[in-house]
Amino acid sequence: MLAAPTALAQEVPLVFGKVTAADFVAAPADSAAPAVMLCDFGQSKIVGGREGFQLEYVRTARILIRRKAGYPWTTVQVPLYRRNEQTERFKKLKGITYNLVDGKLIQEKMAENAVFKDEQDKNHTSYRFTLPNVREGSIIEFTYTVESDFLFNLQAWRFQHTIPTRWSEYRTVIPAYFRYKQITRSYLPFAVQEDKPVPYNTRMSHSFEGLAPAQEYNINTQALSSRWVMKNVPALREEPFMTAQLDYFSSVDFELSTIQYPNQEPRDVAATWEAIGTELLQQEQFGRDLYQKSTLTAQISALKARLPEPRERAAAVVALVQQTMKYNGQEQLYLTKTLKEATQRGQGNVADVNLLLVQSLRAAGLDANPLLLSTRSHGHVLESMPVLNNFNYVVAHVRLPDNTELLVDATEPVVPLGMLPKRCLNGNGRLLTAPAALGRWVSLAPTQR
After folding, report:
1. Which residue among 194, 345, 347, 350 sits deepest, i.e. has the most Cβ atoms within 10 Å of its Cβ?
2. Is 373 helix (H, G, I), strand (E, B) or coil?
3. DSSP state at residue 122
4. If you ran DSSP here, which 8-state letter would residue 434 be given?
């Protein structure tokens, strides 16, 4: 049985369904904007659930669509994380479009069939929904809940968007058993930034072996209540020479660092890059295939006999992979299925292409390993925060016998050996090795090697 925690109540900045005619009036500062985020309000709490604690995240947003260029804001995507048989749960979705017709406020609710589920990779899915009957001057409003058993995945919050935001607020309630590191990125001041202790009460259920039904009990302790508010936030526009626009949005991020239950020693649960690398290299849809025999063994054997010079051999392997598999434009860390199946299909995502490249370079007698990176559109990697979601791309790292290092990407036939496509030139990448202790950060700049 799930029970929400009791903490000191605060007035909320936005109540779903309470739109008035005054909300349709655009401020002079927003006159050039295609849309305006009138209010974006998020709340994350750790609550009692079945067999333990879980995260509950609620987002409610209201947006004024001023011009047709703002129509993309009527479609919302909600990412969800999953691992093995567990997955985050998308619930309680409601959406309404409001229009003023002859001074009368007309509402149209979003249909249930306006929601679509998208499979992304083995660890990520998303739900996508679109608000109905939107025209220039409409207001859209939506609210939804995400429940998660992954306590490490406390929702980040973005206060700034590519449209103006009049009010953005995020709140968290974290019981005393849990400690999160907080990473704030902002060039703008907070109107409110506060932390305070509050009483905390929740109900949890637990099944004990041999006892049925599950036993329910109350938990009473202290919690840390945090609140961040930004007002009248300007739109962030992409500027020349801006490598990663995502890095410039005002935001707050979290990493679970410590868990300490009553009468127990504190337990450090913060991830390390070494542990992430070890796990990834063992996963079936990433590293395990690298140790299997390449489907291109016959062609590679011929290359080895014909091209004794390592750099020439590496270039020939890249060309062979490009002839074998075409890149489908999808930036993903995980294989679609297996390298053998991807080779048979003749096309694949970036992991399919470049992990086949790593496997083939090794078959050609070269020292090759996968290197994870984040593309410019995905933002810079926070090296101090070991989280796999920081990355969305993988390339091959090759060390030649003379210790020259090459970064190689087989998705782009026109890019010379040792250079990466422009989209990849974004700070540093993480080299994955076995043993993991030899993994390190590698500059993605082409002049460094």
Report:
1. 350
2. strand
3. T
4. S
Alpha carbon 264 to chain centroid, angstroms: 33
C-alpha torsion 246→250→254→255, nearest 10: 50
* Rg (alpha carbons) of the chain, rounded to whole number: 25
Integer Cα distance of 444 and 408 in angstroms:
11
Distance, in Å, from the CA atom of 293 to the CA atom of 442, rounded to the nearest integer, reads: 28
Task: Please list, in sequence order, all residues whose beta carbon lies within 8 angstroms of the beta carbon of residue 414, skipping any fewer than 6 positions away.
Answer: none
In this structure, what token pair is assigned to residue 425? 């030139």
According to DSSP, the β-strands at 393-399 and 267-268 are unpaired
The pLDDT score that the predictor gives to residue 3 is: 45
pLDDT at residue 9, rounded to an integer? 58
The strand pairing partners of 170, in sequence order, are 42, 228
Segments of the chain with pLDDT less than 50? 1-4, 8, 448-449
Give the pLDDT confidence of 41-53 residue by residue, as tens digits: 999 999 988 778 9
pLDDT of residue 1: 33
Q: How far apart are CA 256 and CA 197, in angstroms?
A: 19
Report the alpha-carbon distance of residue 238 to residue 231 in Å, rounded. 21
Element housing 215 (H / E): strand 215-233
Rounded to an integer, what distance in angstroms lies between the CA atom of residue 58 and that of residue 201? 19
Backbone φ, ψ for residue 93 (5° rounding): -75, 130
The CA distance from 48 to 219, in Å, is 8
Identify whether 413 is preceded by a cis peptide bond (ω within 30 of 0).
Answer: no
Q: Is residue 278 within 8 Å of residue 430, measured between CB atoms?
A: no
pLDDT at 130: 96
DSSP state of 6: B
Residue 448: the pLDDT is 41
d(CA 130, CA 378): 23
Domains of the chain and any CATH numbers: 21-268 (2.60.40.3140), 273-448 (3.10.620.30)
Which has the closest alpha carbon to 71: 163, 158, 157? 163
DSSP code of 283?
Answer: S
- The token duo for 257 is 């660092």
Q: What is d(CA 421, CA 375) in angstroms, rounded to the nearest whole number?
A: 10
pTM for the predicted model, two decimal places = 0.80
Say what the alpha-carbon torsion angle 303, 305, 308, 314 is, to the nearest 10 degrees.
20
Q: Which helix (H) or strand (E) holds 311?
A: helix 310-324
Question: At how many degrees (to 10) do helices 297-306 and 350-363 cross?
Answer: 50
Dump pLDDT digits (tens) for 7-43: 545 789 999 999 998 899 888 878 889 999 999 999 9
User: What proportion of the chain, given as a percentage, has pLDDT over 90?
Assistant: 60
